[in-house]
Amino acid sequence: MANLQHIRRRIKSVKNIQKITNAMDMIARSRFNAAREALLSNVPYVAKTKEIMRRVMSQMRGQEYEHPFIKTRNELIAEQQEGAGKFLFIVIASDNGLAGSFSSNVFKAAHDTIEYDGTSENSSLDDDDDENFHRKNFDALKGVKPTGKRTPKQQRQMSATGGIARATSHQGGGTSSGKNLAVTREYNDADYIDGIELITVGRKATTHFRQRGYNIIKSYHGISERPQYKYAKEISDLVMDRFASGEIIDVTLIYNQFKSAISCAPDEVTLLPIVTDDYAKSSANLKEEYIYEPDVVTLLDKFLPRRIATRIYGAMLHSAASELSSRMNAMNNATDNAQELVGRLNLFYNKVRQAGITNEINEIVGGANALE
User: Fold this and answer.
1) What does pTM read for this prediction?
2) What is the pLDDT, as a whole number, of residue 176?
3) For residue 362, is it left (φ>0), alpha (ψ between -120 and 50) or beta?
4) Closest-CA residue to 325 (of 254, 253, 225, 180)
């Protein structure tokens, strides 16, 4: 028979854990509101920078313009085939645990991309055609459940337009562009890690990839829940310097995209290179032409660094909101489970106590009968 004192100690221990998880739930909930408001405030700015980028690139059609960040499709194909540079990945995770599967989902998506062996047969939309975020997720941030849903196993394929293309399916049916010539990343060889560099945000990401032998050139800790633009600017400056020098030929950003208070999913953004052919397609329907001052070339030179930093900062805000919502849900579930466990332990305690009382009564009755 179980010891009553042992059961009481276990009930007390579970109640203490319940208090801790409940407190963490309330803290995460209060921080989540601030993180969501910051993300909501940044959404229109990101959308406007994308629109400006599209219009500026449309004005550049037919002009002779060279920039280390901008490439044509043919230039990108030749560069990928030469293999003269490394691939850089920016992975954004959390500093602390107790957030459910938040970090593990990012790590799984990162490994699926980094260790891609070129066996996927599907090709898909370019990263820069991610209008679903601006068109749908703005309402999702306010608590409206988004209509689109990303497939759990996204297909990894390097397309001729640069970066990583991914298969995105929606409830209304997925679309794909199979016309692009595919140039896959070949990481089947044993030394594929030598061609990979990482920038990590969050202690979990740093620890995870460092233990697996990846080359982490820069890491940021203590900012996962409260990102600041200055860190995004620092990352963008580092990325642009290495890309301009030719040390890296592709920059991919991997993070958790916030969808709602109960949903987030890993997402990838190809930061560099920027392919003129893609913007030519996306800007084909733009009929208005603006007059830029001082001129479109000067504007583009000044705007590109800000655009890259904005996208990194937007990803950090998405990750912060996703982390806090995941922790909030995980701690809420832990509190409910603790409450349920306390109820079962109390029931078991009462059964054991009742059984002990019954045995004592039986002993007393037996002793009385023996005296007669």
Assistant:
1) 0.74
2) 31
3) alpha
4) 225
